[in-house]
Design goal:
The chain is an alpha/beta fold. The protein is 28% helix and 13% strand.
Length: 173
């Protein structure tokens, strides 16, 4: 039986009453390993958003009935509303953040996210980090042991923003 998970509008977050999704578990594991932390493991990432982390998905809505098998046999729903205009909107968010903010770290997780790299204003000196999606199906192919969270904090320390994963960071799913 498939366990239903719920999105709360923040990438990888599933709300207060939800079970910890596998992708988020892998994110917490990687943060703990890289930064030698014991993170608070909640499915609700609103505390990250409160600290300035922009958690942005490629599409902001999905259709519950739009499940399909992908090449590996896994079931996926994250393409179901991509053609509803979300790409233009999320592209604009990335471009505006990139043009108007300082000391940003863009952590691009997965192919959709990595494709957004060209939207970042490279003249501003931002740190852009890439890894495969943290899904349990792909995390071992380049997310786990990637060093992205340590690199993020090192950059933020050098910028004087403090070593906090909650500093101005943009994640894209």
């Amino acid at each position: 039986m498939r366990t239903r998970t719920y999105s709360d509008g923040l990438a990888f977050s599933a709300g207060r009453s939800s079970k910890l999704p596998g992708s988020l578990k892998n994110i917490y594991d990687e943060i703990d390993d890289e930064l030698m932390l014991v993170s608070s493991r909640t499915a609700d990432l609103s505390h990250w958003a409160d600290e300035g982390v922009q958690l942005l998905n490629s599409a902001l809505t999905i259709g519950a009935t739009k499940l399909k098998a992908n090449d590996s046999g896994a079931r996926s729903h994250n393409e179901s509303h991509l053609n509803w205009g979300w790409r233009k909107w999320t592209d604009e968010v990335i471009a505006r953040l990139s043009d108007r903010r300082r000391n940003l770290v863009f952590i691009l997780l997965g192919n959709y996210s990595i494709a957004k790299k060209s939207l970042v204003n490279h003249e501003r000196g931002y740190l852009i980090l890439e890894a495969v999606h943290p899904s349990p199906l792909s995390a071992s192919r380049g997310f786990l042991h990637s060093g992205i969270f340590a690199a993020c904090n090192d950059f933020l320390l050098k910028c004087g923003t403090g070593a906090s994963i909650g500093a101005i960071v943009a994640y894209f799913d």
